[in-house]
Structures are given as C-alpha cells and as structure tokens.
Write a structure and sequence with these properties.
- The structure is a single chain.
- It is built from 7 helices and 53 strands.
- With 1023 residues, the chain is mainly beta.
- It has a 24-stranded mixed beta sheet that branches. Strands 20, 21, 24, 25, 28, 29, 30, 33, 34, 47, 48, 51 and 52 form a 13-stranded antiparallel beta sheet that branches.
C-alpha cells in the first residue's frame, strides 16, 4: 500500500519546454549586450533625497524632447544609453519632491555621470517635517505608480507608529484588505475577500514558513516584527515572475539595504510601555486594567571596510501584548427562524487574559563588489509565544437535551413531590408528560427572547490554558548584478519554523486541563434587566448546591504535547535584458525551486481520575483568586466556583499516580494517528517581456509551475491484531501500519498587463492573470480509516488538483503633487475546482490505489468541483495637503472602500449557488487623518469590516457570522529633537467589541468579547 516513489518522476509536458527556453535566454543573455550606437553616449548616476540622505527607487529621469525616460533601481541608480552626443536636458522627478532640470554635455562613446539631490519646499519651511509621515507615503505612491500591474504599496511607518510592531496592523488599512482578528490583534489577512490560505506571503520575494499553522497554508503575519521591513507590497494581479499560488493576492515584505542611504550610519531606538482597560461595564471577574507590558526596538546600521563597501544592519525587537478578555460570554441558541428562541447554554470566562510575546532579531550583511554588483545575506529569528487563559477558567450551564418539555395538566413536570425534587433515581428534570411517558427535555415552556428556564442541565467549570510557541530561523543569501543592459539577481532560502503547544508547562504527562461537573441542575437565564438578549443573569432554581465541593465531580484531565513545524529551502534566478531601441523594452526570464516539509505529532492522553471526589477537591482550589463577587459588581452567575489550581493537581498526580490512569492503548492510538509528515516540491520557470509604445506599456508572459507532493500517515485497520489479548499490542497492530502517497500537477499561468498614461498624472490599467490555490497540507496526509462492517474506507485524496482562478482587473488612477493619489478599479475572479467531500466506488485492478484490495468498497474522500465568482470595486484616496496655507498645510488624509460580491457553490456541488463563502468580507473601509507640523504630529486611523460568514453549515440556521465592527486608533507625538520623540498611542479608542452570532438574528450573540482599549506611551529617536 506504499505508493510513494523514492525518486521523483521525470518532468513532463510544458514544464521542460519552458525550462529549456529559460536556459537558452540565460545562456545567450551575455552575448546580447548591445554596444553604443555611433555618435551616442551614456548618462548614469544616482538620485537621492537631499534632506534625508536616502537614495530613491522609482525616480523618473526624462530625456526632454526625446520622449524617453527611465526609472531608478533599488539603489537609486539610473542609466540612459544611446543619448545623442551634444547637449541634453534631463528632468528628474519624484513624488513629493521638487522637479529638477539639468543640462548635461554628452560625449560620444563616453559615460557621463551626474547625481541628483532632490529637495522639497516643505523641508525648507519646516525642518522638523523631515522623516515624517509623508516620506513613507511618497515612496509607496511612487512604486505603486511605476508598477506594471495592479498593486498597493505602503511603507512600514506610513500610518504612524504601530504599537507592538505587528505588520498586519499596517496592511489591514490598504484597499481590499480585511483582517482576521485574534484577541483584538490583526493576525491573518484576506485579500479581496479570499481566504488567507489562498494568499501568498513572502519576504523579499521568498516564501515564509508557517510552522505553527498545522495543515493550513495561512501565514501568521502578526508573528513577523515590523522593524526589519521597509516596504510592503500587495500585488493583486501577479506578473509571471511571481509565485502563482495566490488567488487573492501576494503580500511581499521588503527589507532595506544598508546602501540605500548616502550616510548609512544610523542608530534607532524605541522604548515604550502599554496597558489596557476594558471599562466599568464589564463583569466583576474581568481584568479591567493593570498588566503594564514593555516594547523595545533597537536598530543599528553602518558600513565598514577600506572602500566602505561592507554594510551591516541589525534590528532587535521585543514586545508583549497583554489582552484582557473582559466580558467573554459564549452562548448557543435554538436554531430557528422564529421568535422567540430559547438559549441552550451560556458560558462566562473569569479572570481570563492572553499574553503575546513577540521577539525578533534581524541581521543583514551587504557586500558591494562594485557599483553594479551587490552580494547580501539576510537572516532573521522570530519568537512568538501566546499564553492564553493562565488564570481562572470558565463557568458553563448547558441543557442536557435541547428540547422543550411537555408538562402535565397542572403545567408542572411530574413528579412534583417535594421529597424527590432531584434525588429519586427514576426522576429526571422535565418529568413525565400527561400520558405518563418519560421526557428528558431541558427547556421549560414559556421561554422568551430574554428568558429561558433550564431543567435537566449540567453545570460545570473548567480550565484549559494554552501555551503556543512558534519560532522561525531564516537564512537568505542573494545577489544583484548589472552588466550594461543585462541584470541578474538570485536568492536562496533556508528556513525552519518549529512550533509546539502545551499547557502551563511543557510536559506531555502534565495535566493541562480539567472539568468539574454538577449534574441534574435547573436554572433561570434572565436577560430582562441587562439590556441585551445575550447578557443573562443566572439563578439556580433546582438541584444540589453547585458551590459546595461535596457535589463536585472531577474529570476531563487532559494533556497536550503538540509538536509541529515547517522546513523550507529553495532558490531562484532571474535574468533581465533591456533594450533602448527600436523601442524601450526588456525581456526577463528565470526559474525557481522550493521545497517545503511539514511534520506534526501529538501524543496526547486523557487521565481517568479515580481518586477522592466531592469535598476532597477543595484541596485543589486556587486560593490566589477571589472567592466572591465584590458588592455592587455585576456577574452572570453572581458567584465564583472556586477554580482549581493545575499545579496542585499535578503535584497530587505525581504523589498518587494510582489515581490518574491513562489508557495506554488510547494514548498509543493518539500518538500513532497524529504522527504525520508531508513534503511539497515546486519547480517553476517563466518568460516575459515588457515594451513601451509611447504612453502605452505592455507586459506579458507565461509561468509554468510543476508541483510534487507526498505524504505519510497512519492506516487504521480494525481487523488487525484481533487475536491479540493485550490492548496495547492490539492497538499497535491496528494503527502501526503506515501508508504513503504522492501526487503531481502542472499549472500553466499566462498573464498580460496594460498600462496607459492618459495624461501627465493619469494612468489606466487593464490586466489578466491566471493563478491558483494549492490544497491544504491536510489533504496530502493520507489518513486512512478502514470500516469492514460498512465496507468503507475514509481517506484523503492524493489526486486533488489546486483551485484555479482567472483574474481580471481594470483601474484608473490620478496622481497629484505634492503627495497624493485617487484611484478607482473593478475586478473579477472566476474560480473553479473547489474541494468537496464525496463517496465513490473503489475500482478493480492493481492500480486502484490500494494494491488491488477493497475493490467495490465505498471510498469517502475529497474531489475537485464547483465554481465561484468574486467581483468587486475599490476606491482609494490619499493626499498630503501641504499646498494649503499656514496651519492647514500640515494635514494629510486617506480613505479607501472595497465593495465585494460573490456567488457560487464553492465545491458544495449538491447545493444551489449562494454567497456563503467562509471569511468573505463584502464591505471593507479604512480612513485616516494626520497632522504634522513643527515638533508636533498626530494621526487617527479607522478600519471598518462588515458582517461576514465565519463558519459554514449546510443548515443556514447553524451558520456562524461575525457582526460589523469599526475600530479607531489615535496616535500623537512631540519631536523634541532628532534623537528624541515622545509619543503616545491609543488603540481601539471606543472599545469596539468582538461579536459573533448564528442563524439569521444578529441579536442572538454566541460569542462576545470585550478586549478593551490599549494605551501605549514611550520615546523613540535616531542618531
């Protein structure tokens, strides 16, 4: 049954043809470097921002009167070749800086060097505006304007200081971007409504590992410190030289080079402290303030060596984001379109908070071989530690059977004898109906949208802390070289991203969580006084006293030893050859190889506790927590249960192991079933070209990606070892067999992009690009379960194909000085080959996937099918208002709005088309106002996301949605000097709540979280 080959099969189809074309272009490129035409010379140089000492990428150098222009590269360099000998006039421009015109004498067959130092009137009028908001915005707008395709670009500091260095908090303010928030922190990003698993995240063009995501492909952008990032690019219509697995878009984070500055020596620092408050209206057991946490960032850059050609840049950062979970309420409701609806359960979190620590170190070494050659090594380390629910726990009341009770003629459950309210062995709350038939329903009639009475319900309190750590070790060497009109760049990557998850201690044998239950209780859930259907006051109306330890039953003693990660390595080579005649053009080609390995194991176990119950459990109570609700404070239950201390439970387990029995066979089964690994290898090649026909430029090309995937996991065979009497040996026989599978597929990805300069500051774009989204790594794992009774095998499908998308974009943009843009665009995505579950018959023959066995059985697996269509519009406006007089010149404003619409069955092939696409956010908007003048600056940013589907269910009433949410942040600072700025930030200033609901009624809240307002104050500066 082992289907994995030991050697990869040979390349087939269009892939080798493209690779041969790539190799031919690379081989012939050195021979294609054109000589200067007779009677012409060359002008070269660098363009910089004089005030900041920054070399400018994307500055435009125009040869006046010749209808020719070039742009500076990443180092600020430019070359104008085949310039007629004699006098030439150059016009140099860059967004936000004054136009500069210079007359240059060109000598035939010679190179004339001329550098340009651009300045702005703003700097002359106000020296303290230097290095303010406008510079990052100008760089972003310039690169976006010069791009041949549809993309958005932003600088890391474009929207002001980011409290804890989370890059996702910057990116979520761009057009078409919506964030999946985790405990009030942007973590995963969706581009144009497409799930984060179908977007590509890269660092300087190389893929980032996502070791902590298990089988998912989404990248936790919040784990990446912002300090090492200069520019972030969101490409919505990919060009052939980019990875093709990006149905939504590609997010690339670019680091700065040490040689980007005329004066490279630079020391930066930022030191601050933050805390939160969740307000006075939360319940008594919510952390309302305190927990001050630090943020520290240090940066150093300089050049060394006799020729000052060795650059070193080091960035260090450390931040802790403490999140209070004030007012966390979780509820479940009757699934109905009718009103009223009863509440089936309610849980409240007491003394719950999250501590997130993000640390990073980035070291970059640059070696300038010459003005035209650069070698570099970029390495970084990140450490992300998420500690969740380390104090307190949660209380819960849930209906044992969520049905409405049928009562007797007197309107009461029978029996009604006082002496047997709950203790009679044959009695269950809900009693008997009038005919004498037993009913165990838990919902009493007469409920309303604000009041539900439960009988036959279970009260419990529990605690399951989570400590999840993700690390990333990355090493990226590379180089860039220019030989006349020929440019070559290459890069490699080796990255490891291990992750683990445990309880409060990393011990696979330690008890991570517990549950204490009290059965057969009755409750009144009353929301008439709280002002909200989701906020209830709970009063116990029947059953034993749940606060008395004598009635407690301890169970659910779980452990956790999750260990997973990603190993990534690969490299790429790109060759670009430019031509000045007969028309400005270039051709570019290259190839890329990436290998990604995923592994996961989780040998968890559950202890059966056989020790003393009842009153003895009071010995485990956590005495550090309050035991009562302060007078005048609101709490749903009105009391605290006496949460248990896990440290005390584990001490008792170590001293009395006989009371904590882990089923050895079940533990072995968990270890074998959760031991999985997979590998994916991608071979890619592309060829593309760009030409300028006056105001029109056209870029087109083709990319081919060949993917090989293999996986290994356990096979569960229930008939194996049936004769064995030892449970452990039998489990080993049933789960010890491993199976391996492999699959391969090829994606051919054409693309063409048009850019038309309709006027001096007007651009029109039109693009078509093909992209795809790979199945999750979970589909690569060949998990196999055999059911002999049903003659059915459940197994992941090794032959799944990726989802395919055809992307169409049209946009119009106007740029205006000093720094501004207004744009509008529409787009369409046609997506097919969604994944869905299906049942098929296993064919006969040795090649049936099971070595000829199980012919005629049912195979429950996945398949490709279905369709989806996403269409939308984006509006964007951003401008610095420095053209206004006096005080008003310090203002800047930005705003964007994204409208999305989707329809399809998304792989649910047996359903009618609908708009029910998980995590698809139909409306997103961001806006902000900034002010920077003299020593003072301030900014306010807002982000709005509409309601969206969070979890899909075939039953519309069981679908989960998030409510609309608007979050506002405010920032301000005072520049005492270049080396010292005082700043303060307030995040979520109006304390916007996280809320989820199910079904069709938004007031039936199932998850409500109040994470509060975050305050941060500190100092930063540079030398």
């Amino acid at each position: 049954m082992n289907l994995m080959p030991t050697v990869l099969p040979p390349l087939r189809g269009s892939c080798p043809l493209l690779l041969r074309l790539v190799a031919a272009v690379i081989f012939l490129s050195p021979f294609c470097v054109l000589a200067q035409a007779p009677g012409t010379g060359e002008i070269s140089g660098r363009v910089s921002n004089k005030a900041l000492g920054l070399f400018l990428e994307g500055a435009r150098i125009e040869l006046v009167g010749a209808n020719r222009a070039v742009l500076t590269d990443r180092d600020g360099r430019f070359r104008l070749v085949d310039v007629p000998a004699g006098t030439a006039t150059l016009a140099v421009s860059y967004t936000g800086l004054n136009l500069q015109r210079v007359v240059v004498d060109v000598i035939a067959a010679r190179v004339v060097t001329h550098d340009f130092d651009l300045i702005s009137d703003v700097y002359v009028m106000d020296a303290f505006t230097v290095a303010s908001i406008r510079e990052g915005q100008a760089a972003a707008i310039t690169q976006q304007r010069n791009a041949p395709n549809v993309k958005n670009v932003t600088a890391g500091d474009a929207f002001g200081n980011i409290a804890d260095g989370n890059a996702a908090e910057v990116l979520k303010l761009l057009p078409g971007i919506s964030a999946i928030n985790d405990e009030n922190e942007a973590r995963y990003l969706m581009v144009r409504g497409i799930d984060a698993n179908l977007n590509n995240v890269t660092f300087d063009g190389m893929k980032l590992a996502s070791g902590g995501q298990g089988a998912n492909r989404q990248t936790g952008i919040s784990e990446i410190p912002l300090g090492a990032i200069e520019i972030m690019e969101v490409t919505k219509s990919p060009t052939p030289d980019m990875d093709g697995d990006s149905i939504g878009g590609n997010i690339n984070m670019r680091p700065a080079s040490i040689f980007d500055r005329a004066e490279p020596r630079r020391i930066t620092y930022a030191i601050s402290a933050s805390g939160r408050t969740v307000g006075k209206y939360v319940r008594a057991t919510a952390y309302t303030s305190n927990r001050i946490r630090p943020t520290i960032a240090l940066g150093y850059a300089n050049v060394f060596g006799k020729n000052r050609n060795i650059g070193v840049a080091l960035n260090l950062s450390h931040t802790v984001n403490w999140v209070a979970a004030g007012g966390n309420l979780l509820a479940s409701w009757q699934p109905t379109r009718e009103s009223p609806a009863y509440m089936r359960s309610l849980a409240v979190y007491d003394f719950h908070s999250t501590d997130r620590m993000r640390s990073g170190a980035n070291l970059r070494l640059d070696y300038k071989v010459s003005d035209n050659s650069l070698l570099y090594v970029n390495s970084f380390y990140t450490y992300y530690d998420n500690k969740n629910q380390f104090e307190g726990g949660n209380q819960n009341v849930s209906a044992l059977r969520a049905q409405v009770a049928t009562l007797d003629a007197s309107g009461r459950p029978i029996p009604a004898q006082v002496q047997f309210p709950f203790g009679h062995p044959s009695y269950r709350p809900g009693g008997f109906n009038a005919a004498g038939a037993r009913v165990e329903a838990s919902i009493l009639p007469g409920y309303t949208d604000r009041v539900t009475e439960l009988v036959n319900s279970t009260y419990s309190f529990a605690k399951t802390p989570v400590n999840r750590v993700t690390k990333r070790y990355s090493f990226q060497p590379g180089g860039r070289h220019r030989y006349g009109q020929l440019e070559i760049d290459y890069a490699g990557i080796y990255e490891e991203s291990p992750a683990w998850e445990s309880g409060m201690v990393r011990d696979p044998n330690a008890v991570r969580g517990y549950t204490v239950t009290v059965a057969n209780t009755a409750w009144r859930l009353d929301g008439t006084k709280t002002g909200s259907a989701g906020r209830r006051e709970l009063t116990q109306t029947g059953g034993v006293n749940v606060r008395d330890p004598a009635n407690w039953v301890l169970s659910g003693l779980t452990t956790q030893g999750l260990d997973q990660g990603t190993d990534l390595f690969g490299g790429q080579l790109n060759v670009k050859l430019s031509f000045a005649k007969p028309i400005p053009a270039y051709i570019k080609t290259g190839f890329k190889y990436m290998s990604e390995e995923r592994y996961t194991s989780n040998p968890n176990k559950t202890y059966v506790y056989s020790g003393p119950q009842g009153a003895f459990l009071s010995n485990f109570i956590d005495t550090s927590l309050p035991t009562s609700i302060p007078s005048g404070k609101w709490h749903p239950f009105g009391f605290l249960p006496g949460y248990l201390d896990l440290a005390k439970i584990n001490q008792y387990r170590e001293a009395n192991p006989q009371f904590f029995t882990a089923n050895a066979a079940t533990s072995l089964q968990n270890a074998l079933a959760n031991d999985k690994n997979a590998r994916e290898q991608v071979f890619a090649g592309y060829a593309m070209g760009n030409m300028s026909l006056g105001a029109l430029s056209v870029l087109g090309g083709l990319r081919v990606e060949r993917t090989y995937a293999s996986g290994e996991s356990a096979v569960q065979d229930p008939r194996a070892g049936l004769t064995l009497t030892d449970p452990v040996a039998r489990t080993q026989a049933q789960w010890g067999k491993r199976t391996s599978v492999e699959r391969d597929y090829t994606n051919v990805l054409p693309g063409i992009h048009f850019k038309y300069e309709a006027g001096k500051n007007w651009l029109m774009r039109a693009s078509y690009a093909q992209s795809f989204g790979r199945p999750s790594f979970g589909s690569i794992y060949p998990d196999t379960r055999i059911n002999y009774d049903a003659e059915r095998i459940t197994r992941n499908n090794p032959g799944l194909k990726p989802q395919d998308a055809a992307n169409f974009d049209v946009s119009i943009e106007q740029y205006f000085e000093p720094v501004g843009i207004i744009s509008a665009g529409v787009f369409l995505k046609e997506i097919k080959n969604f994944l869905f579950s299906t049942v098929v018959r296993i064919p006969t023959g040795d090649d049936n996937g099971f070595d000829g066995e199980y012919a005629g059985w049912e195979l429950a697996t996945q398949a490709n099918g279905g369709f989806g269509r996403v269409r939308g519009a984006e509006l964007n406006y951003s401008q610095q208002l420095s053209f206004l007089p006096g005080f008003w010149s310090g203002f800047g404003v930005f705003g964007n709005y994204t409208w999305l619409e989707t329809t399809g069955n998304y792989g649910r092939v047996n359903e009618a088309p609908s708009s029910a696409l998980v995590n698809f956010t139909p409306r997103v908007a961001s806006a902000g106002l900034s002010y920077s003048r003299g020593r003072f600056y301030a900014r306010i940013n807002g982000n709005y996301t509409s309601s969206y589907l969070r979890a899909y269910n075939i039953d519309p009433l069981a679908r989960s949605y998030r409510t609309p949410r608007t979050m506002i942040d405010a920032k301000m600072g005072f520049r005492y000097s270049r080396g010292l700025t005082l700043f303060t930030d307030v995040a979520n200033i109006f304390n916007s709540k996280h809320k989820q609901y199910s079904g069709e009624y938004a007031e039936r809240i199932t998850d409500q979280r109040d994470h509060g307002v975050r305050f941060q104050a500190g100092v930063n500066g540079s030398f």
